[in-house]
Structures are given as C-alpha cells and as structure tokens.
Amino acid sequence: MDDVMDSFRRDGYTYLGKASSLEDLRHLSGKQFICDLHVPELLVFPPKTDLHSHFLYTAGHIILQDKASCLPAYLLSPPVGSHVIDACAAPGNKTSHLAAILKNKGKLYAFDLDMKRVVTMSTLLLRAGVTCHELANQDFLKTDPNNPKYRNVKHILLDPSCSGSGIVSRLNQLTDDKASSSSERLQALSGFQRKALSHALCFPTVERVVYSTCSVHTEENEDVVRDALKEHGDQFRLVNLLPEWPHRGLETFPTGSYCLRASCKTTLTNGFFVALFERKSVESKNYKRSCSEETNIKLTSPRKCTIKLKKRLKRNTVNPVKQSCNEGIDTKSPSAKSCILKLKKKKRRKQNPIVHVKKE
Fold first, then answer.
1. From 189, 215, 219, 261, which residue has the greatest number of CB atoms within 10 Å?
2. Beta bridge partner(s), residue 153
3. Residues 34-44: pLDDT tens digits?
C-alpha cells in the first residue's frame, strides 16, 4: 500500500489522511486522495479522476470498481482457509476479492452458466494469481446442496442477474427505456433471484449467505429477502449490517432496515443493495463465546467510491492483472462518486501491491 501511495504522490497527488465523514469524501477535488472512513485499506479519489491511462492500471496493478460492489465480499467476511461458493461469479471481480480475503487458501467454488463469461473470469483470476478457486460452467440452481464436495461450505455469496438499475452510467438509459423496468421483466428477474437465494439457504452446512444486487427496485431487493425469510426464517435471521451506514433497506418488513442500500446521493456510489443471512445456531454460538470471553464483537463498516488495498495473492508467475473492467461505473461520469481502487498489500518483499479498482 505504501508503495502505491508513494507512486501517486510522485505523480502529484496529495494524500489527505483518513476521512472522518462522508463530507470529507464529497469535498475531494483535483489530485487529492484520502483513506475511506468505513472500510480500511480503501483510497478515495475525486469523481472525475480518470486512471485508465495511469501505469498502475495499464500494468495491471489496479482494477477499477465501484465501492458499493465491494460490500458483498467484505460483509461476508469468510475466515482464511474457508470453503466458499460464489454462486453467480463472472466476470470475477467479487471472486478475486473473496480470494484475497481467504489469502488464497481454502477453496473457492465459482459458478456461472455463460461459458464466455467463465473464460473471462478464468483469465482475470489467473492474472490475479488466484489459485484457490474451482470454476464451474454450470447452473448454480442445479447444484446438489448435499453433494459431499460442498460439505465444508459455510459461506455463500449470491449476486444474481438483476436489472442493473443502480448503475449510475446507465440511469438515464434505464429511465428512458420502459422495458428495462417493466413489471414483466422485474417479475422474471425476481423469480430467478428468489429461487437462487432459497437454493443457497438450503446448503446444510452454510452459516452465512450474502444476497446483493445493483438494482434500486424493491421487487429485486427487500421483496426477495422478505420471501426468503418467510421460507427459511426458522433457520436464518438477517444481520443488522453496519449500523452507522446512512442508507438503510426499506422497512417493508420488520427487519428490512437491517439491509443496506447505496446510492449516488447518500453514499457517493452506484445504487446497490446488500443483505446478510446468518444461521440462528451460529448466532447462539457466537453469543455464548462472546459472553465467556467477555469481549465485544462489532462489524467493521464499509466505505465510499475508493481504492481498496488487499494483500497480494501468491502466484506462480509475475503476470500482472489486466482487465478492461468494461462493466459498471464510468469514471469519466460527472456523477457524485469516486473511482475506487482496491489495493492488495505486499505479501513478499519483492512484490508490488496490487490495486483493485472495481467497477461494476
């Protein structure tokens, strides 16, 4: 991280330290950057910052990504060495984030039905040095939860196909295109989302499931979560995510506000939605442990459009990560959100940190 920050300083950028409020992020201008107040290891740049021609990007050391889309892997927070499923994984940004959290240990099962997207994901993960993954070009819904292969899976990330109505660069297009938000299309999408979420919650050993979308529609967000709780509420509960996060889920059901929403206006990001399901037996286990140890456990919070630093994954080659990142936020857009870079810390002295600037 220090090497990356020094590189930006040499290029004339001014580092302002750690932000204390969203206002600090909102007032960034020129060639300034700052550490995000919510998520450690995220560097925030002003809205119109264009890093596409920066050598850190062209050399593959950074991947452009919106901050909101970093929340699912961050909030799932699987322990190092865990077995994790990324149910709708391509093109692989969240998958690479999960691999970094796992420190490239354990097993990461990544599913996607589209072969072309699987090939793209394979290339991205290879260049990122990810070795703990197992790609599957198959429908997650047809995966047997009782397959012994997945008996150690305790964490699942589900970011299914959605309307994409929260992506800032597409808002005008979506607003003008009535078909994009038609009741028929939303009904079809939410139907698939319900099935996928219910399937994820059926894995017998799973303890935590993150459900996320880049949609602003209640039909794809709170309604899907509400129905999942009706079906699986005897075994799972919602986790009250980041209580200090300013934009909450809609209170269309009793614990709707436990979910997170994100938007250009309130969090300076793309529109996004995240919910975290936790098995009730795990909640009880954690409670007993916290009482016996007399410790307080609290969730770390998320952050703003930024740059996230991750520990560099072990790799067999020194091939840098290169990615077009052609989905998601447009860093040239005048929208009130920052380019976000997710940086990996050095794992070896001779390796340079990788900056992930995600962008979905």
1. 215
2. 83
3. 988 887 777 88
